[in-house]
């Protein structure tokens, strides 16, 4: 079967993802484990291995361990973990590691998210494709003859309690007012991490009443896909928040590294608003410790409210491209205290520059619980503009469609930025939009924002009409 697996189909720019049995199988994973150790020179060193609740994750973790120990690594099996648990363990233990997960993808998928020691990211630019190419060689030709390196060992370690305790050190929730929250784990790893961090399964209880939705770990996702980015998948949470009169709702994706927030009215608080809220809190915290002008990272699709709040709070906003490898690299380069993306990835310097939705959720809980306003009023301050959300258009000639849009705005009072797609913004600051081609799908992604919905909606409609080659009046 090995000759049927082409690893170029599953290795993406930032991680590995494919259909089990079609793009990935145990033999391929074993080869990837061996290549991971050889490319990163990990023979004789510890390597962390964990997985989510997908049916194939346990088998794949064992296969990876076989390949990695064959090439001399000492494997520490972490068992069932969320992706941010891997980042915690990688940072805390200063060891490279992997977690088997396909995040929010459907049940037939699995994949691998990888980390160098210290939770440093691995991407196509920092070794991921080298691992792919060597793994393909091992898969096609067989692993190297045993004997050039001593066989590694396998041990086990549970990091859940340490992970929960560490997060509680970073945000103290013990003295806030009593809150009722609904948490939708989507049958993903949030069903394990939420009771540990916010509940009382491993640590003393907090002033939180938790109403659980779909906490049973089930990688077949029997209730709804574990993808909170799709509004359809938030409906159960929204209904439960209203039914229970909860103060807020939290929704995690399958590997629980992203978190989405619903207010007491059942309405979502945008990831940009969360980014601004957490940024203000983190700026105040480090300023109190004497840090001047702390840096906050945001990608170019977040609301312009984010850099405005950062600047107003005495921080320094830095804009980057979309994608966790860019954000993490910039976090390290800038010494940034926090970073946020429109996709609900939140990065913290105190969390080894890695992303964790749980820590962002804790900041929201703390901000809400430290005062008496409902979340809708507290959050409204951080959402002063009207956003379109991300709208995808299936386009074969993405460059041609973008060029038509740029031509449409020629001669108008606009500014054009070509970082990560094309961003066109009104010179008076009243609106902006970004067109960004997907690297993996035939989509051109539109994101826009205006001072009001009345300003941005005609711009949105005109641009989408041009992109989709519909006649539009100038």
TrEMBL record:
Q: Which UniProt keywords apply?
A: Isomerase, Magnesium, Metal-binding, Phosphoprotein
One GO MF annotation is:
phosphomannomutase activity
Needed cofactors: Mg(2+)
Residue ranges constituting the Alpha-D-phosphohexomutase C-terminal domain according to the UniProt record: 390-464
EC number(s) stated in the UniProt entry for this protein: 5.4.2.8
Coiled-coil region: none
Matching InterPro entries = A-D-PHexomutase_a/b/a-I, A-D-PHexomutase_a/b/a-I/II/III, A-D-PHexomutase_a/b/a-II, A-D-PHexomutase_a/b/a-III, A-D-PHexomutase_C, A-D-PHexomutase_C_sf, Alpha-D-phosphohexomutase_SF
Q: Which CDD domains match?
A: PMM_PGM (cd03089)
Q: Which domain of life is it from?
A: Bacteria
Annotated Alpha-D-phosphohexomutase alpha/beta/alpha domain ranges read 8-126, 162-266, 279-384
In the record, the note on similarity to other proteins reads: Belongs to the phosphohexose mutase family.
Q: Per its record, how is this protein called by name?
A: Phosphomannomutase
Gene from which this protein is expressed = manB
